[in-house]
Amino acid sequence: MPLAPPPDTDRRIRLALVPGEPAGVGPELCVRAAQLPREDREITAFADPRTLQAAAAALALPLRLLDPGQRPQRPGDLPLVAVANAVPVAFGTPDPRNAAAVVGALRLAADACLSGACDGLVTGPTHKAAINAGGIAYSGTTELLAEHAGRDVVMMLANDIVRVALVTTHLPLREVADAVTPEAVERSLRIVHAALRERFGIADPVICVLGLNPHAGESGHLGREEIEVIAPVLARLRGEGMRLQGPLPADTAFLPAKLADVDAVLAMYHDQGLPVLKYSGFERAVNLTLGLPYPRVAVDHGTALDLAGKGTADASSLLAAIDTCARLAHHPRRATQ
Q1: The domain containing residue 272 runs over which residues?
Q2: Rg of the chain's alpha carbons, rounded to an integer?
Q3: What is the pTM of this model?
Q4: What residues form DSSP beta bridges with 52?
Q5: CA–CA dist 276, 115 (Å, integer)
Q6: Are residues 202 and 74 in the same domain?
Q7: By 3-state DSSP, what share of the chain in percent is helix, strand and coil, each rounded to 5?
Q8: Domain total in the chain
């Protein structure tokens, strides 16, 4: 199962790249990405120039920051929209005073995508606690971008083996059952179905829907959400022509034989589906936000503060995110996406 479809046009794709938390590994991952050839895409970073230069020095790699729109000529060339941090960065130690710059870079990059100046957005890992400590209410980049664009969205993580979308994202476990409503399940399925068709080019996608409870409720003996909430939604959407499996027990739904003909899995909550995905291929996993009017792809890892500035962080997830975003952006935007 590919992360994204092959490109269907020769047009160069313009991507916005935001490192995320400046004290984490994001800046050095961006420096590593700048070393690679980019024949089919143009990448512009939205970040603090001093932090990127410090990351390049830590890696002993070249970095030449260019004006936006300037064409890179050699490894290490990176067009930049400068978003200055309030205070210098100490790798490994987030400073809440830089929270406004982190969020500002995300908003500027999203503005560029909404205006058509960029075709897609790639984001590095943020540090939620540091942003909130900086006085900015922040539950995650997915939620920030959804509010910024005024769209309902769904978080999907994907690797070469499976795509997993979520009905609920960053909620305490005791709040999940109340959040799994018929409206939430239907909204999630419609967004995922549209994205699979219009971004991934799958004409008639098959979506496996997990139950909420162990054994998908065991016919009501372990919970009735499958019977009263999930199953009626699936029946109604099947009547519209959607190919939906479930609600299925989560403990067996990810067996290879079960996934053979499935294009995506819809899990009810964060830790129901994502541990399986990350175990199956963490290094190549990426995080997608479905439902925005542009593709957004993020790394599937945290800030790795213990590795920041040491030059040992693995850039595989960021490189996969860039490649996936470029491929998704080659597909025309649709109103339902």
Answers
A1: 160-281
A2: 20
A3: 0.88
A4: none
A5: 37
A6: no
A7: 40, 20, 45
A8: 2
Measured distance CA(84)–CA(322) in Å, rounded: 23
Whether 15 and 128 share a structural domain: yes
End residue of a domain, out of 247, 264, 281? 281
pLDDT in tens, 274-322: 999 989 887 788 999 999 999 999 998 999 999 999 999 999 999 999 9
pLDDT at 330: 82
**Tens digits of per-residue pLDDT, 222-260?**
999 999 999 999 999 999 999 999 999 999 999 999 999
Q: What is the CATH number of the domain that holds 219?
A: 3.40.718.10
Whether 79 contacts 44, CB under 8 Å: yes
Q: Alpha-carbon distance 23 to 309, whole Å?
A: 8
Give the other-Cβ count within 10 Å of 10's Cβ. 7
Q: Are 314 and 189 within one domain? A: no
pLDDT above 70: residue 6:
no
> Does pLDDT of 331 surpass 80?
no
